[in-house]
Write a structure and sequence with these properties.
The chain is mainly α. The chain is 76% helix and 0% strand. The protein has 6 helices and no strands.
């Protein structure tokens, strides 16, 4: 994904990037699963659901080191990530 200040990723694309990052970092994947209360089977069943997508984005938004690593790997800025996070949370409250 090219770096651009005007093109924010979609929630689903961002969540996919988060999940891919976790898949490459098993210790972080285990930490996420523990926080989310998911076992491997529950995680597999949840892939692609809005709840998991929102949970992944929330997890990264609350964890600056992996947020920064994800952004560097995905070619987006932390500001773009947080804009998507804000939009996601705003739509939940509407």
């Amino acid at each position: 994904m090219p770096r651009s200040d005007s093109a924010n990723p979609r929630v689903s694309d961002l969540a996919d990037s988060c999940l891919s990052f976790l898949a490459e970092h098993p210790e972080e994947l285990m930490a996420f699963m523990q926080v989310a209360g998911l076992d491997p089977e529950a995680l597999r069943r949840s892939v692609g659901t809005p709840d998991l997508q929102h949970g992944l984005i929330d997890y990264f938004a609350a964890n600056e080191p992996i947020l920064l690593a994800l952004c560097a790997n995905a070619g987006i800025t932390p500001e773009q990530f947080m804009q998507v996070w804000h939009q996601q949370n705003r739509s939940e409250w509407s």
